[in-house]
Amino acid sequence: xxxxxxxxxxxxxxxxxxxxxxxxxxxxxxxxxxxxxxxxxxxxxxxxxxxxxxxxxxxxxxxxxxxxxxxxxxxxxxxxxxxxxxxxxxxxxxxxxxxxxxxxxxxxxxxxxxxxxxxxxxxxxxxxxxxxxxxxxxxxxxxxxxxxxxxxxxxxxxxxxxxxxxxxxxxxxxxxxxxxxxxxxxxxxxxxxxxxxxxxxxxxxxxxxxxxxxxxxxxxxxxxxxxxxxxxxxxxxxxxxx
Length: 242
Hints:
Elements: H1 3-11, H2 18-28, E1 31-38, E2 41-48, H3 57-63, H4 74-84, E3 92-96, H5 102-109, E4 113-118, H6 121-135, E5 140-143, E6 156-162, H7 168-181, E7 182-192, H8 198-204, E8 210-222, E9 225-236
Parallel strand pairs: 3-4, 3-6, 4-5, 6-7
Antiparallel strand pairs: 1-2, 7-9, 8-9
Helix pairs in contact: 2-6, 4-5, 5-6, 7-8
């Protein structure tokens, strides 16, 4: 059990909701608010004021974990926009690496029954708080290690992830996790800004029975950030095993 998880259990954060959850998170780290516009919707995200302050030497030594979850990445904005335009009624959705929870929130707004996952317990609690603040309800959450995917997890009608293919290992793991957890007729949406491991991910897809059926690229410019965000829609190949 990580030190972070022990602290959260000790403080009882997983049992809190609403203002009580916000107050508990504010005791864990300094928070800042960011207003985010997605389509015609406006959301208020509360996040750690400085992600660098969350870096844990113990986490890095254990498996090179860094708190990327605490930043709002352009790919998350684009994925959130894509999901807001989907019809989620009656469909389950899994987010891999939920971070601050923006795609989870817009998926819930679109009607999906959402389960948000991350490898950082703090990310799950922040996602719960952000969803509750914006929607008045929370997603299911679960801490998941892609290297040890739970046997009891899935299938899901839709699986989504934003900017998670930034290491070669993750290109392999993410494709494998999608293949394991996606329903036979399901689809996945992966948003990526052109990370170095994208080519590895694309090469892995046919090996795990997945294919790209649609892809859109949208430019993103903000300050010094200049990215081309690709959102890929994946499905199982016709001859893939169910």
